[in-house]
Every structure is written in C-alpha cells, then in structure tokens.
Amino acid sequence: MDGLTEDVMVFADEPADPQANGLEADSAASAVRPWQVLVVDDEPDVVKITRSVLHGCMFQRRPIVIIAAGSAVEARAALESHPDIAVVLLDVVMETDDAGLQLAVAIREEMKRSAVRIIMRTGQPGMAPERDVIVRYDINDYRLKTELTAQSLFTSVVAGLRGYAEIAARLRAEAEATLANRAKTDFLANIGHELRTPLNAIIGLAELMDSEAFGTLANDTYSGFIHDIVSSSKALNETLGAILDVADIEFSSMVLRCEPIEVAVLFRGVVGPMSGRAEWAGVSLTHWAPPGLMLWGDGRRLRQML
Fold it and tell me: C-alpha 195: how far from its chain's center?
C-alpha cells in the first residue's frame, strides 16, 4: 500500500454481523463518521448486489454504509432522516415510470440538497434516454444496469463521494463566512448606535454654545473652537450613519425615505461642505440647477451619492 493517497478506495475487514433489511444501513465497525450512500431501487436483487459490491469499502479512511429504499417515497423519507447522505444511486422506473426522475427534481428543488451526487441507474433506457435525462435533470452520472460492472460502480461512487466532499466543504466555508460577516455587521451596528447617543449630546451642547443661547463667549477663539466642534461632530455623525447604512444593507432592512427635494438646495448642501477640500486640491467646484426644479427622493442618500 506504499505510495497510495488517502483518496484510494481500499477494502476494510468485513464486520462480523452485517445488517440488511428494508430501510436499513450497513453496520460500520469504526468510530469514524461513515459515508452514507442511498440505493433507491425496487428490485431487491439490485440492492443486494450493490450492497455486496460496496460492502466493507472505504474512501478517505472512512467506511461506506448503504441505506436502501425500494421506492421514491421511501427514498424521500430516508433523505429527510439522513441529512448526510452523500451519493444517491437512483433507479428511474419504480412505482411510476418516472419516479426516479421526479425524485431527482425533488432532491434539488424541494429539499435543496445541492451537494448530494445523483447517479441515475436504469434497466430500461427507452423510458429515460441518456441524452434527454442528462440535459433536463440535475444529475451527475447516468449508467445502464446491464453495463455497470463492479469496477465501474466503484468508480462512480468514488467520483460521487469526492464531488460531494468538495461541494460540502465549500458550502461549509460559505456558511462560516456568512456567519462571520453577520457578526461583523452586528458589531458595527451596535458600535454605531452606542457612539451616536453621546455624539448627539456633544452636537446639541456645542450648537447651544455656538449660538450663544445663554450668553456670549468671553473669547472669540473659543467661538471658533466651538464651531469646529459642531462641524467635526456632524461629520462624524455622517460617518456613523454610513456605518449603520452598511448594516441595514447587509440585513436587507434599509428604508428609503422619499420627500420633495429642490435640486438647487441639494447641490448647495453638497458643494458647500466640499468647497474647502476642493480649493485645497486646486479644483474649481461649481453647480447649477434651474430655480424651482424639484425631484422626489431620499435627500440623505442623494447627498451621499453626489
């Protein structure tokens, strides 16, 4: 066995007392989580042969167990009770002429089992021509029972298990990335709200001082400082608003608040705060809009866009 990789299929020692009846699974004398292969066929001999061929087989150091179903109805029950089924060996003609085909559709569309590899096996190719089935149905392999040798069955199952493992790993990574992104967004939203409360208090008090509501400031320098505090605090508030917008977009909860907006006023609200930065950069920043021109939209979002 020197030089063989983990992916090579090898025979393990056969268990002393294998189980075999109805909707059952082979016993695996191993603490390692086994691969689950669902055999769906209404011919008991086909199930028996498949079980015999795959019995005691291992892939990536994990044993393979067989779950048997004699109809599409039993297969649905097996899929629902065994969420880790990796490969389905699926007959076409069972309780109806297209029971297997309809089950393949249900696996993908109703059960949303995109990782499961479906290997279609049929003894009546006239009922389900290969070209039509491959094109119309989301299956991964098509085999005629009369041509399916033990070796080709090994090959198909190994290919199916490998494909399932790759897709399942990618789906797990995507789910973990989604959770991590959600945690990041939750953190940003919480921080944004926590900072906004004291920031609003700073803005309110600074505006009162800037307006000299309770008396004049003794020193004009302080007046300039207060004005800078108001401007900087409002800019920071806008930044926090942008952070909360990101959270709203991530949670699909952003609400546009539409209102009538005068375009000239909108332009002035954008150009005014940007004029100092434009002048420092040597850029001439101008704007024009017909007087009285109105539009309907979310003023804050439009200002952000401009």
Answer: 31
Kindly give the pairing relationship between strand 117-122 and strand 62-69.
unpaired
User: Which residues, 6 or more positions from 219, have their beta carbon under 8 angstroms from its beta carbon?
Assistant: none
What amino acid occupies position 129? P
* Residue 209 binned pLDDT confidence (cut-offs 50, 70, 90): confident
The string of pLDDT tens digits covering residues 142-182 is 988 888 888 889 899 999 999 999 999 999 999 998 888 88
Q: Given strand 141-144, what is the order of strands in its sheet?
A: 10-11, 57-59, 62-69, 35-40, 85-91, 117-122, 141-144
Gap between the Cα atoms of 304 and 298, Å rounded:
10
List CB contacts of 170: < 8 A, sequence separation 6 or more: none
| 25: DSSP letter | B
> Within 10 A of 271 (CB to CB), how many other CB atoms are there?
14
Which one has a higher pLDDT value, 54 or 221? Answer: 54
228-233-235-237 Cα dihedral, nearest 10 degrees: -170
Task: Count CA atoms within 13 Å of residue 93 on its CB side.
Answer: 11
Q: Give the pLDDT band of residue 6 (cuts 50, 70, 90).
A: very low
Return the SS3 of 157: helix
Radius of gyration of the chain from its Cα atoms, rounded to whole angstroms: 34
Tokens for 86, please give them: 């990796």
Which of helix, strand or coil describes residue 69? strand
Q: How many residues does the chain have?
A: 306
Q: How far apart are CA 294 and CA 260, in angstroms?
A: 7
Average pLDDT of the residues of the chain: 83
Which residue has 């004029």 as its token pair? Answer: 275
Both tokens of residue 142? 């098509």
Do residues 59 and 158 touch, judged by C-beta distance below 8 A? Answer: yes
